[in-house]
Amino acid sequence: MKESIEALQREINAFAIRNDEELEAFRLRFLVRKGGIATLFDALRDIEPAERPTYGKLLNGLRKSAERKFEDAAGKLEQSASRAKTHGIDLTLPGRREFLGSEHPAQKVLGDMKRIFGDMGFTIATGPELESGSYNFDMLNFPPNHPARDMQDTFFIRRTPGEDDLLLRTHTSPVQIRVMLDEKPPIRVICPGKVYRNEAISARSYCVFHQLEGLYIDKHVSFSDLKATIYSFARQMFGRDVRLRFRPSFFPFTEPSAEVDVSCYLCSAKGCKVCKQSGWLEILGCGMVHPNVLKNCGIDPEEYSGYAFGMGVDRTALLRYKIDDIRLLFENDVRMLEQFSQ
Ligand code: PHE
């Protein structure tokens, strides 16, 4: 018995465990129910009862040493496996950064405008940038020879005599027509979007820009509703203390019409380069929807009235973010755009 125990101990000591297979072989050889150690335990039964405790003790020691060797080896193998996983990775290198895009300055301003009008109950309507001549002009009560139709202002895509023109919309007002043809009053929508004009390109004007149109049609809508809405908008957009100036103006689709100036919020109306020392900045055109426009859309002007307004978005973005060239808004150079990530 003694020799068998010593022989097994030597075998355990000599057993090399260098990988998972050898670890498993070790377990099968010594530690399982039919393994070398259990077999010796079984053999205890054939030994004189008086000597059993001595050999029992030796066998227990043998089992402990096999178990310890097994656990040590298993621990080491696991460690080196996890080290292998990071092998080839230089943990001292800086990580790769995820680059986040940022919102375009014109979209930020547009977002504020949408929120302010959204709070007042306006929903958003959109229309196509490629528009028909009748929606862009005729239905809006433009007379047939109105200068705005001129080639100098409008990008015509198709002009076939006897057919409706196809053009890039010159303003967001055709969306008014689309909404009035589609929906019954009360109507309360804003229509944000891009518009196109064939103008000389400079730091101040570009062939494409953003507008936001507003339209409210209901019974008994008056010019004072329009004023209150514009006042509320201007205070939220430009500051509580801004003043407004309504100047009489003309648009074929509104009567009466006005252009609205806001007191220059850059110099507190003292006069600066941006407001050209006048203390005022023009922000929008507006008026009461012309009865002819209502009629064109099947709305009875005796029963309903409404107001409309249209404002530029880009100039506010230029002023707010102190950008001095409108072309920068449309070139989409990331070096410019990433300055607005906050
Ligand atoms: N569509 C006009 C423009 O582009 C603005 C406007 C809209 C004026 C609605 C009155 C009412 O200049």
Q: What percent of residues are in strands? A: 15-25%
The helix tally amounts to 12
Strand order of the largest sheet: 1-5-6-10-9-8-7
What is the 3D form? rod-shaped
CATH class of the largest domain equals Alpha Beta
Q: How much is the radius of gyration in Å?
A: 42 Å
Distance between the termini: 82 Å
Kindly state the number of beta strands.
10
Average predicted local confidence, pLDDT: 92
Give the tally of structural domains: 2
Looking at CATH, the homologous superfamily of the largest domain is: Bira Bifunctional Protein, Domain 2
* Unreliable spans: none
Order of helices and strands: HHHHHEEHEEHEEHEEEHEHHH
Which cofactors or ions or other ligands sit in this model?
A: phenylalanine
Q: How would you characterize the largest beta sheet?
A: 7 strands, mixed
Given the helix and strand composition, which structural class is it?
A: alpha+beta
The CATH topology of the largest domain is what?
BirA Bifunctional Protein, domain 2
CATH-level-2 architecture of the largest domain: 2-Layer Sandwich
